[in-house]
Amino acid sequence: MILMKDIIREGHPTLRMRSEEVAFPLSDEDRKLAEDLLMYVKNSQDEEMIEKYDLRPGVGIAAPQVNQPKRIFALHFDESSDENLSLIAINPKIVSHSVERSYLTSGEGCLSVDRAVPGYVPRYARITVKAFDIEGKEYKMRLKGLPAIAFQHELDHLNGIMFFDHINPKNPFAEIPNATPIDRSSGD
Ligand code: 4LI
Ligand code: NI
């Protein structure tokens, strides 16, 4: 089980690497890693598990964040929200995206960043993605809203990019052209 002590933080060189493609069929090790990542995000949204293991809530986590530079991440959105999505993405890619952008008005957080970095993080509002699941089956889906933002945030991790790289350094809250703000007081 992944705990906060297993998550590397800002400054660790692995977070700046380009992660390696994963080969199929998955090795037992890679399968376990993928399952552990999904289990982390699920647990991190469960009150009792948060208390018991001192987890920080997240909707996404990527393999390089546990110091394994492989192209795998997991996303989980609970049914309490309008989105209801749980996925493992292996060798993921964005095949097309909207011109329109979006951003979280409260900014983005990251399990590997122990400080609040204020500012808007411009993302594509809608993306069509392709990835492989744990069985090596390719899937394609369209995402919008927070799931689209989280997918882009996690895909960035596989390329050594941190969310704050996208924040306008002169004015973190500068208006983003052609963008729809997404208001989310907090998770769920
Ligand atoms: C408790 C239980 C306010 C501040 C609002 C919490 C269940 C920030 C938002 C959650 C912010 C859940 C989240 C992300 C932000 C802020 C991620 C709380 C977990 C809200 C997810 C990857 C960016 C994703 C919306 C600095 C660890 N997640 N909030 N950003 N939630 N959560 N990101 N932004 N301001 N990060 O962090 O999983 S994309 Cl679900
Ligand atoms: Ni992150």
TrEMBL record:
Enzyme class, spelled out: hydrolase
Note on how the cofactor is bound: Binds 1 Fe(2+) ion.
Cofactor(s) for this UniProt protein: Fe(2+)
InterPro entries, per database record: Peptide_deformylase, Peptide_deformylase_sf
Binding site for Fe cation: C110, H153, H157
Organism: Planococcus chinensis
Keyword Nucleus annotated: no
Pfam families: Pep_deformylase (PF01327)
Residues forming the catalytic site: E154
Family per similarity comment: Belongs to the polypeptide deformylase family.
GO molecular function: peptide deformylase activity
EC code(s) of this entry: 3.5.1.88
PANTHER family linked to this entry: PEPTIDE DEFORMYLASE, PEPTIDE DEFORMYLASE 2
Keyword annotations from UniProtKB, A to Z: Hydrolase, Iron, Metal-binding, Protein biosynthesis
Catalytic activity: N-terminal N-formyl-L-methionyl-[peptide] + H2O = N-terminal L-methionyl-[peptide] + formate
Function noted in UniProt: Removes the formyl group from the N-terminal Met of newly synthesized proteins. Requires at least a dipeptide for an efficient rate of reaction. N-terminal L-methionine is a prerequisite for activity but the enzyme has broad specificity at other positions.
Name of the molecule in the record: Peptide deformylase
Record flagged with keyword 4Fe-4S: no
CDD domains: Pep_deformylase (cd00487)
